[in-house]
Q: What sequence folds into this?
């Protein structure tokens, strides 16, 4: 199936989403708008428990953007949305007809991402490509032998890029399944190399840069032909 990845664009007020496409929204997290009034008390309490001010701000911004994004599909005010949580903490819409809308949120460094689908689950991960990170140590701990295979080839830059590609693919897939990190099936196999499918052929993965030094992967349990990217609250790269 031919795959189309659109450039980042300004979204319409009420975006239309078909079952064959995925919408991906990016937003900067270092935002100074007062967004607290969009969150519910439980979320504000969670923000207060985050002792590092930058982390609390990023959490508030991400939750507010999530609410604004979902509200634009559902034609509902962001503050009226309610979430419930899966056994491993994956948030989903609750409390009214969500019209088959599914979403997943991710944040890293200065950027947040929200993926939205209709009728199918979705997982997304974004990572800042941190040059200081001891990626070999993390790979030894988190990656399976088949995922580690190939990480030793090429120059340092290539190895680091491959590490983040595998990391975001693994996380997006695990987040799509929503099962958490005690999930016994955590090996994406050779999907981290050329292919876009997981080893059992049930999840489709697509990786791409989000901004300078940021890499993301999307995971959806069916082949999708269109990835439409929306950019509402833009700051220059
Ligand atoms: C819980 C987890 C989803 C958090 O991941 P993270 O990289 O810290 O954060 P991300 O930015 O990717 O995603 C966080 C968002 O995912 C959503 N989320 C939380 N639990 C989730 C779950 N079990 N499944 C899917 N989505 C989940 C939430 O919306 C959360 O954001 P919020 O708390 O602001 O609402 C999980 O990925 C984790 O614990 N990872 C730790 C790293 C690890 O063990 N990696 C091994 C594989 S390489």
A:
């Amino acid at each position: 199936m031919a795959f189309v990845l659109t450039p980042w664009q300004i979204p319409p007020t009420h975006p239309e989403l078909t079952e064959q496409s995925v919408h991906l929204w990016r937003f900067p997290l270092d935002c100074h708008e007062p967004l607290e009034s969009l969150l519910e008390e439980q979320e504000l309490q969670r923000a207060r428990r985050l002792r590092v001010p930058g982390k609390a701000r990023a959490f508030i911004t991400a939750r507010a953007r999530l609410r604004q994004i979902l509200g634009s599909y559902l034609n509902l005010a962001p503050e009226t949305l309610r979430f419930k949580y899966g056994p491993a903490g994956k948030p989903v819409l609750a409390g009214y007809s969500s019209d088959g809308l599914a979403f997943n949120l991710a944040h890293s460094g200065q950027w947040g991402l929200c993926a939205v689908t209709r009728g199918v689950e979705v997982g997304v991960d974004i990572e800042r490509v941190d040059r200081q990170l001891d990626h070999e140590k993390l790979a030894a701990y988190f990656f399976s032998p088949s995922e580690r295979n190939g990480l030793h080839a090429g120059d340092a830059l290539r190895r680091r890029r491959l590490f983040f590609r595998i990391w975001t693919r693994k996380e997006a897939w695990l987040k799509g399944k929503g099962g958490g990190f005690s999930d016994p099936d955590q090996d994406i196999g050779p999907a981290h190399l050329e292919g876009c499918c997981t080893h059992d052929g049930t999840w489709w993965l697509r990786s791409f840069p989000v901004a300078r030094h940021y890499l993301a992967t999307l995971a959806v349990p069916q082949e999708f032909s269109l990835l439409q990217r929306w950019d509402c609250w833009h700051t220059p790269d």
